[in-house]
Amino acid sequence: MTGESIELSYTSGTGTTPLLGETIGMNLNRTAAAHPDREALVDLASGRRWTYAQFVTDVDRIARALMARGIRKGDRVGIWAVNCPEWLLVQYATARIGAVMVNINPSYRTHELAYVLRQSGVRMLIASTEYKSSDYRAMAREVTGECPQLLETVHIGTPYWEVLRNAGAEITDEQLKAAEALLSCDDPVNIQYTSGTTGFPKGATLSHHNILNNGYFVGELLGYSQHDRICLPVPFYHCFGMVMGNLAATSHGACVVIPAPSFEPAASLQAVQDERCTSLYGVPTMFIAELGLPDFGSYDLTSLRTGIMAGSPCPVEVMKRVVAEMHMEEVAICYGMTETSPVSTQTRTDDDVERRTGTVGRVLPHLEVKVVDPASGVTLPRGEPGELCTRGYSVMLGYWEEPERTAEVIDASRWMHTGDLAVMREDGYLAITGRIKDMIIRGGENVYPREIEEFLYTHAKVSDVQVVGVPDERYGEEIMACIIPVDPGDPPTREEITSFCDGRLAHFKVPRYVRVMTEFPMTVSGKVRKIELRQEAMEASAAGTSS
Fold first, then answer.
1. CATH number, domain at 447?
2. Which of 92, 170, 456, 472 could form a disulfide bond with 478, CB atoms 3.0-4.6 angstroms apart?
3. What is the CA radius of gyration of the chain?
């Protein structure tokens, strides 16, 4: 007896371009040799500029300085700083000598800083001095006694930084080359700590092969060349900035433009205009902020052609405006996670608006993705929701010194279990429907917040919306829509939202509660903190301040 064949939710990325089998330092040398006089880096805050030849010279200077300070292959060097040129110099200098750079979130305070320094065994910390409410010098002094492996802290922009820059004079080119000759592209080169929404954060350990190839193929799909100039307002401490931005640029001879130490919408658009940037990155909230500037129309953005929007779902209307008003006809949506270096799927430059807003694209070359039943691990038919898994060169080496936690997410066949709920369409494109832990179970019905959010975005009074579940005695969970209104003086009422949903959404998906807000709790990288939002929603519901 034969049945109708079922196409499973599995696909692999094909391509004619082979993987890069080199270290980050080797790749940078190759780019600089091909494009020595092209600009590699522009920092608008300080007015400094580097050609590729100048950039490699300064990278090697810092690399020799680290060697002179006793940093060797495998040693951990922490970078705790806002976006600045020195961040890139440390990124490439550590890679040059095989040190492992540890990214530290600039918003961390002493408790988190001490944990990361101890857990990764950082020997040298390179940090900003201060920024906004953060006094990095005071916090670093406070934790030094708790971190016995930390031998030295150097603050960028101080005399100590200049001392460090000059420390490598005794290290010869031959010694530097000898250190680089000991490296393999499979060596760890970077530790990035995940959000730690439950317990302490975990240090995703990434190799040259992981992040160089991921940055390279993201850039390939965006059509990057030495003629591109990439405006990067996203944080370098996250993969979005340092892999999809920096490594995508340097692997293609493109230029990195830093508009400001942290995101400022006006500074970003000014940078695009003044530097004739061809690409702009951001999470949706960044693009919303840029489009919302009162003088948005006064900026000349005609040099743009592409960019990346990632981190959270993009509302359809926002995408339409980005394409039409920011001239980003080839903008891409990327999906991934730190543990996968980060990008697993990406839309293509010729995809239509539906694919750019309804999906997160299709798998990258040389990677595999599948959607499985979270309970059994069995691959599901296309069109059915389940957990998204990724396999290939991008999957991390593991969580730093935590094999048990690594085994929880990477199975025996090297599949990375993302924890994200997804649907693979017939055309191989993937739609993310939420996190397994974000899924709302209301009266036995599985409710995916993303679906309701996308629908409510179309309401004329809704500027932004997040949907969360709150405890309910009768149904287990009820649905709350947290809304930022277009006009704070005329927010939508619960009755208006209910009426808007009536007959267009299943009854069990209609929000029981509506909470009007001015902003959402966000991570530094621009993602909404849903756990925190849910907690706030529960407190508001209990206090009776939600309609």
1. 3.30.300.30
2. 472
3. 24
